[in-house]
Specification:
alpha/beta; Rossmann fold; six-stranded mixed sheet; four-stranded antiparallel sheet; binds adenosine-5'-triphosphate; binds magnesium ion
């Protein structure tokens, strides 16, 4: 039976000797994401979120500490981990159609199976009719949906997403958030979603990890018990939503210490 993966990092630290201001970007960060959980990492701009996700996905070695997926130390991008990058315009190949971009993640499979899986994944993100278009022919939101389809197509048990909706307009963003929740509800892979947007973080999360400014360390872990399914109007009108938003805001903006 399909089950989302666990992700754990223990005492993670990472420095870039050439980085401006502070060379330490991540400092002694530990957290754990449970199977099937929607975890959101919320941190201010420039605090080290992308660096953290690169260490989670095995693209970058930590200086200290370790990352484990299902209890195994990560050295390379694990097979069943899908990554959606912050800059969608750099993550798709412009010379490949949307379908072939998705199929790129399925190179080990025979052609017919890969094509079917790619079409299914595109259909799940509402792009069945655009499969043969090229990234430069479609909107930013559609490109980001293609990147999500690529992560879904190889049946990832853990999907790591780096501010995937930061560069699309506000209305598209709301649609994409709800679409992502729908897909996750059906499939129950684990998600690690990074954002600096407080509303987005509270709206999506089961568990919210709030980071400090650079060097990033864990300020607070908040369990978000808002009922599911969530939707834009009812969820955001709940008193609990307002309370959580305020709590996260104080942690991020006010420099409040962890309690
Ligand atoms: N490969 C690298 N070499 C040197 N410095 C780096 C490298 N990658 C990131 N940095 C530095 O680390 C710091 C954190 O960068 P990072 O991109 O992880 O932050 P972020 O929270 O993702 O930022 P944003 O909110 O802009 O997406 C920055 O000061 C950046 O310049
Ligand atoms: Mg970033």
């Amino acid at each position: 039976m399909f089950e989302g993966a666990t992700l754990e990092c223990r005492h993670l630290s990472k420095s870039f000797p050439s980085a401006p201001e502070s060379t330490t970007v991540i400092q002694d960060l530990s957290l754990r994401v449970q199977p099937g959980e929607f975890a959101v990492i919320l941190g201010p701009s420039g605090c080290g979120k992308t660096t953290l996700l690169r260490t989670f996905s095995g693209l970058l070695r930590p200086d200290r500490g370790e990352v484990l997926v299902d209890g195994r130390v990560v050295h390379d991008v694990p097979d069943d981990v899908g990554v959606v990058f912050q800059e969608y315009n750099k993550s798709l190949f412009p010379w490949l159609s949307l379908e072939r971009n998705v199929r790129f993640a399925l190179r080990g499979l025979d052609r017919a199976t890969a094509a079917q899986r790619a079409r299914d994944a595109l259909a799940r993100v509402g792009l069945a009719d655009s499969a043969h278009q090229y990234p430069w022919q479609v909107s930013g939101g559609m490109q980001q949906r293609t990147a999500i389809a690529r992560a879904l197509a190889h049946q990832a048990r853990l999907v790591i997403m780096d501010e995937p909706f930061a560069s699309v307009d506000a209305i598209t963003r709301i649609h994409l958030e709800v679409m992502l929740l729908d897909i996750w509800t059906e499939s129950r892979f684990s998600v690690v979603f990074v954002t600096h947007d407080i509303e987005e973080a509270v709206f999506l999360a089961d568990r919210l990890f709030v980071l400090s400014g650079r060097p990033a360390s864990l300020k607070e872990e908040i369990t978000v018990t808002l009922p599911r399914p969530r939707d834009l109007l009812t969820t955001k009108a709940l008193p609990l939503f307002q309370q959580l938003r305020e709590r996260a805001f104080r942690l991020i903006e006010g420099g409040e210490q962890a309690s």
